[in-house]
Amino acid sequence: MSDRAMLLAATRAYSHLRLRYRVGLCELPLALLIAGVVVVRPVLLQEPLFLIGLVLHALLLVAAFLVPWEKLRHGAYIAIPLLDFVALGFSRNGAAELLPGLSFLAIFPVIWLAASGVRPVLSFIASFVGPFLILAAGPLLGTEPMRQIGTALLLAVAMATVNISLRFATLNAAHSQKRLEVSNAEVHRLQDEKNERERLLETILDTIDVGLVALDANGNRTLTNRQQRSYDVLIGDDANDDGASHLYAADKTTPIAENRSPVARAAAGETFANYLVWLGPKDSQRAVTTAATAMTCANGQFSGSVIVSNDVTDMVEALSAKADFVANVSHELWTPLTSIIGHLDLVLDEDYDLPPVVTQQLSVSRRNAERLYALVSNLLASANGNASVHLRPTDLCGLVEHSIESAWPQAANTGVTLKADMPDILWTTSDPLRIRQVLDNLISNAIKYSPDGGTVTVRARKQSDAALLEVEDTGIGMSPNETKLVFGKFFRTAAARESSIPGVGLGLSITKAIVDSHGGSISCSSQPGQGTTFTVKLPLLRSDEN
Fold first, then answer.
1. In Å, what is the CA distance from 56 to each residue of 76, 236, 308?
2. What is the pTM of this model?
């Protein structure tokens, strides 16, 4: 134990004593010194004055321990150090010839009076008068020369100075102690607040249905909430007989290597989002999408990471069910469409001498049946996650003209004006059937979402190394947040639902799949009530492809 620790322990032990024992301990050192003087100079017992002083010291020591000071008026115990001056006066003057320096023992009652803090004015006066009378009694009684008065005065001044110094030191110590207590109270308050915030944070984190893990710079977990612990149980090694974790890729069957798990990737400093994994045994798997954000300290070094996990099993299964529904419906349409197209081909290819009007109507039916067949094929491809294309040199402007021509009846019925702004020819490397689908879908949507009339403008131009296609309308528009979701399967805007505009929300997802399969891009910009613009970029025809 260090000296400081021992001192603190002694101080705490002393403060827990009863007042009479503390008073007695304060008086004990002076009494022991006087007893030591007797042992060293036993001849002093022959001096009457010294004997009187010795008896007084003994009585004062007994009184210090036995008097119930805690029941008396506060500060009554200072009578002991005041009477010590009297006892020292007798002891010193009885031993003046053998021990003239005995008067310096007055320092003990002086220290006691100053440290007690009781009646500071009386303490100061007693610290001056007491030592002065102890040393000046001899000259005043004529037993010592008068020059001793000067020494007595000097001793009194010194003792009074000690009293003042100790008084200020005691006040400073009390002030420091008070500040320390205030500081400790503030520390305890802040600690309580910290603990309360930690409990609140833990309660909040355990309440939310999102798993959360916090890692330090070494990849060790510093925080894990209740939901994440439930995910850990699903992954746990003890649930698998072969020792492998129940952590699988998006296909639900391929085990994920330990170093590719979300926590391992985050511990390595990776930042990622929408990382889909499956947890648990194969008969009770849960789909969880994970994201991680790496943290860095001031110098840019990796300092930890936070990983969040969200159970999306219901959403994944719902999307899968929708995809299965689309595939099944498309497949059911495929057979009758094939039959319709086949019979139309037979009628048109044979020489039945049909009237021109009937032949024209059958041709229109076959053309639209072929378009419907292509759409069903595209639905099947979308359900399977791909869209096949057959690239060849294609005039984009010619496709635009045909699409606008086909859309005139729909536009006329809703009072929409169709405009085109494009060059005579714009060659691209694309699949004309698929791009025609893109144009028909975008123009049809532009007309459909302009229920109160307006203008639909189709622009095509060359921009750098790409062909730029824009379809702009002045219709109902959509919010910026909706433009981010508009290419998702089965997505429909709030305005479309409220206006009862027909549709299932598949057209734009199919359009994007077609554009992506061409190596192009499609974007959307819109404002509510101000219309919408879809921009498609397609690769231009290179000179070596002519």
1. 18, 83, 82
2. 0.44
